[in-house]
Amino acid sequence: MSRVNGLHKTYEIRCPVHGFISLNEWERCIVDAPAFQRLRRIRQLAWTDQVYPGAMHTRFEHSLGVLQTVSMLYSAIASRSSDVLKEDLGYTQDGLKRDQQLIRIAALLHDVGHSPFSHASEELFPENDHGLKFKHEQYSAAIVRTELRDVIENHPLNTANYGFRVEDVAALLEGSTKAKQRLFWRDLIDGQMDADRMDYLLRDSYHAGVQYGRFDLNRVSNTILAIRGTRGRGPRLGFSEGGWHAAEGLVLARYFMFTQVYFHKTRVAYDIHLKGALSEILPRGKFPRPIDAEIGDFLAWDDWKVLGELSAGRGGEHGKRLINRDHYRLAYHSPEISSPDDLVFLELIKEKLGNLVVSIEEASKNWYKTGATDIPIMSDVDPTLVQPLSKFSNMVRSMKANNQVLLYVRPEDSERANKIIRQEVENERTRQGTLEFDPGAS
């Protein structure tokens, strides 16, 4: 749908999460670019549909949703905290309006560098000259600098009104100091309360058919603001005191989605098979690097190409298991928060299972970071009184990082593995008296 807005058209796209998402002509041209259209062929949640059949949505719709969410949050902050933004960051009203366009484009393109089936295949990214794996954000920035340079820099809306360069967008995606005062806005794209996770939690829960990712986005938008830094530090994103429950709700929604959906035992098994199949399919077992000469080769890889390779019989054992839905079975897992004793017992189980164990996976995640990155909450009575979210929320304060370990076996070995585990659990109960264990066998 399109409509005339002043001298320019505005395009509206229907969205099951946000209703309508509005794009201007420049953003529409970016969306139409082949590098962005590729996101229609990148699933948001890899093979999660094998567990939650509705989870077939893509990075394309998620990226549009992040644009919509970041625009809503930006407008709220610019309206509610204009004094802080003007006095501490030097913004004028025109400057705020100008940079909103840049933040929208950065939000739109933040995931353009994802590999097939999204995060599930990132372990197959190559290493840089320092021996560190490239990240999808680096691919996104590289694609912006190459494939999207013309549509970003040379569109009439940009040349006549903004004069943005691709480096302005890339600096935000990479978190580079080249972004200068705009680095403040990067927390809306990549931070503890960013628009990215706000959209994916709502979108993933909607398509998976679960309620775990729900939180009050309207309340978040109504209470988010810029809070002045202290001791010479710049301002930070935070919330007014009346909104701390909404901030807590977002943190908890993320925890529940990870533990109930993203770390689901069968979903993790499909990640194992995808990585195994791709290591057989990809040249030298790795994706091309995010450098000019290889970006085109990287962009040629999407879900459709991988599925074509799998349907042609490539991908080895893992490829066959993906096609036939004959996934590995979880034999044993430690608790979500594993104590040293839990991990010692897991090592015993692993030793007893021997070569029956075909994969050892870690479900690790830090749900909330306290300290310097703790979300600031500003008092509704005294604006100079700012305290961290962890001071308000017992739940957030007591959250511990997930450090679960999962042992997988082949389906044909599942019954034998379960017998071994039951015996060891019984032995441990005898040694520990009344202590009970849940082997988690399946």
General description of the model:
- The longest helix is centred in the first third of the chain and has 22 residues, at 59-80.
- The chain folds into 2 domains: 2-268 and 285-292, Hypothetical protein af1432, CATH 1.10.3210; 328-378 and 400-442, Alpha-Beta Plaits, CATH 3.30.70.
- With 442 residues, the protein is an alpha+beta fold.
- It has 20 helices and 10 strands.
- The chain is globular.
- A hairpin with a 7-residue loop joins strand 8 and strand 9.
- The strands form 3 sheets. Strands 4-5-8-9 form a 4-stranded mixed beta sheet.
Key traits:
single chain, 442 residues, alpha+beta, Hypothetical protein af1432, Alpha-Beta Plaits, 12% strand, globular
Quick summary:
By secondary structure, the protein is an alpha+beta fold. The protein contains 20 helices and 10 strands. The protein has 2 domains: 275 residues, Hypothetical protein af1432, CATH 1.10.3210.10; 94 residues, Alpha-Beta Plaits (2-Layer Sandwich).
Order of helices and strands: EEEHHHHHHHHHHHEEHHHHHEHEEEHHEH
Question: Quick one: overall form?
Answer: globular
The value of Rg in angstroms is 24 Å
Averaged pLDDT: 94
**CATH fold node name of the largest domain:** Hypothetical protein af1432
Low-confidence stretches: none
What is the name of the CATH superfamily of the largest domain? Hypothetical protein af1432
Number of domains: 2
